[in-house]
Amino acid sequence: MPPVDREDESASETVLAGSLATQTLLKRNYLFRGLTEVALQRLAALATRRTYAKGAVIFSQGDPGDALYGVASGRIRISATAARGREVFLNIMEPGDTFGEIAVMDGLPRTAGARATERSTLIIISRSDFLQLLAAEPPLAIHLLKLLCERLRWTSELVEESAFLGGPARLAKRLLILASLHGRATGIGQLELRISQAELARFLGLTRQVVNHHLSEWRRRGWVDLGRSQIVIRNAEALRRAINDVEES
Asked: What distances in angstroms separate CA 20 from CA 24, 37, 42, 98, one per listed residue?
C-alpha cells in the first residue's frame, strides 16, 4: 500500500467494509459494470476500503503501481510534476471513477500522483488480484480497454490544446470541460465549478496572474462570476465562441 500522509491521527484510517456495500459500489462503477454477481462478490471480498483526510497523498508519481483505486466518496486530484518541479493538474476523480489503471496494467511506476482534495473513501484492489480477475472475466477486459482509450483521448486533447490554442481559448475550453464533468447547475444555463484560480492555472500550465486577467475580463463582460474557490459560468455560448473563433482562424 502506498504511504499515506499522517499529519495527525485522523489523516487516514482503514475501514472494513461489508461485502454488500462494497459490491454495490463496484456494480455502479463503469469498469466493473456487467460482471456477473459471482464475479462481483469475489471482487468485493478482495477489495479493501480506506478513508483519506483532505490533502492526503494516495500515491506519488514514480511509486509502484501495486493497486487499482475506485472513488466511493470525495474527490481525488490527479497531477504530474513537470520540469523544474512545476506541478500540472491532469484530472479530477469523483465517486464512481476509477484511477491508477495504467501502472497496474504494465507494472511500471505511476505516471502521475493522486491526492485527496477533500475527505475521501476509496476502494482498493491489489494488482495481483485485479490481474487474476481480468484473465477470468472478458467483459472486464473490454471495459478496461475503453477506459484506457478514454484516458488516451483526454491526454491527446490536452496536448492539442497546448499546441494549437492560445491562453484565452485554452482557458475557456478547459473551464467548459471541467464544468461539464464536475459542475453544478445553479440556474438556467449556469454552472458552478468548485475550483480556485490557482488550481485552474495548474490544469493549464499557466500562471495564476494570466488566468485571473482573462477571468476578470470575462466577468466584466458577464460571461462568468467569480467567488472564493469557485467560478460560475453564466454564458457558456460566449466561451464556446471564443474557442471557435481561434480554431477557425
From this structure: 6, 11, 11, 19
Please give the model's pTM, rounded to 2 decimal places. 0.74
Torsion angle in degrees (nearest 10) through CA of 214, 155, 60, 47: 120
Q: 116: part of which helix (H) or strand (E)?
A: strand 113-116
Same domain, 143 and 176: no
Q: Cβ distance 100 to 114 under 8 Å? A: yes
Mark whether 184 and 127 lie in a shared domain.
Answer: no
Q: How far apart are CA 114 and CA 149, in angstroms?
A: 20
Task: Please check whether residues 105 and 211 belong to one and the same domain.
Answer: no
What is the extent of the structural domain holding 207? 165-248
In a domain, 243, yes or no: yes
**230-233 and 190-193: which strand pairing?**
antiparallel
pLDDT in tens, 128-176: 998 988 888 888 888 888 888 888 887 777 777 766 667 888 899 889 9
Output phi, psi for 187, to 5 deg: 170, 180
3-state DSSP assignment of residue 195: coil
**Radius of gyration, alpha carbons of the chain:** 19
pLDDT digits (tens, 9 = 90+) for 94-134: 888 889 988 888 889 998 999 999 999 999 999 999 898 88
